[in-house]
Specification:
0% strand, 2 domains, mainly alpha, 168 residues
């Protein structure tokens, strides 16, 4: 088994980014990310985890679900809270930043309107750049089922983006 410190170093950015995109605020994402790694560490000490990446993402996904269930509220990403260290690019050009913020706002609004499972798939595939095989392990589905679900998720996102664009 790998040393847990190397596991932490390898996955902290990805898990944080996944949680951040789901909850929308830096403070909450940091807290939930810490809780995820603490839970995984406790499990890591007690037993042999076969696929650490899948276990981390599943734990993060469950913690986000618990967060929303406990608070029963919807959070949005405040655009001023997005920073380079959050895994997003940053531009010094004010007009360029305004365009990026506007596009991010449209995507975020559309993403929040699609099913949570679709949100996860899109984040894992296109933000974290996981393979369909890795996503299949995380979600306990076959690779074929993941491909179909990704296709449906992208269609749902495209439809929502079109809807959001019409209302702007």
């Amino acid at each position: 088994m790998e040393n847990f410190t190397s596991i932490y170093d390898q996955y902290i950015s990805r898990i944080y980014r996944f949680i951040f995109l789901k909850v929308g605020t830096r403070d909450v994402a940091e807290d939930l990310c810490s809780e995820v790694f603490l839970r995984v560490y406790e499990k890591y000490k007690a037993s042999d985890i076969q696929n650490i990446q899948a276990f981390l993402y599943q734990t993060a996904r469950n913690r986000v679900i618990d967060y929303y269930r406990d608070r029963s509220r919807n959070a949005t990403i405040p655009l001023y809270d997005i920073h380079e260290e959050d895994g997003f690019g940053r531009t010094d050009d004010i007009l360029g930043q305004a365009i990026v913020n506007s596009e991010m706002e449209h995507v975020h609004k559309a993403l929040k309107k699609i099913h949570s499972d679709y949100q996860d798939l899109i984040i894992w595939r296109y933000v974290d750049e996981l393979t369909t095989g890795e996503i299949a392990q995380i979600s306990n589905k076959s690779e074929g089922a993941v491909r179909v679900a990704l296709h449906r998720a992208l269609k749902a996102l495209r439809d929502e983006l079109a809807s959001v664009s019409k209302h702007v």
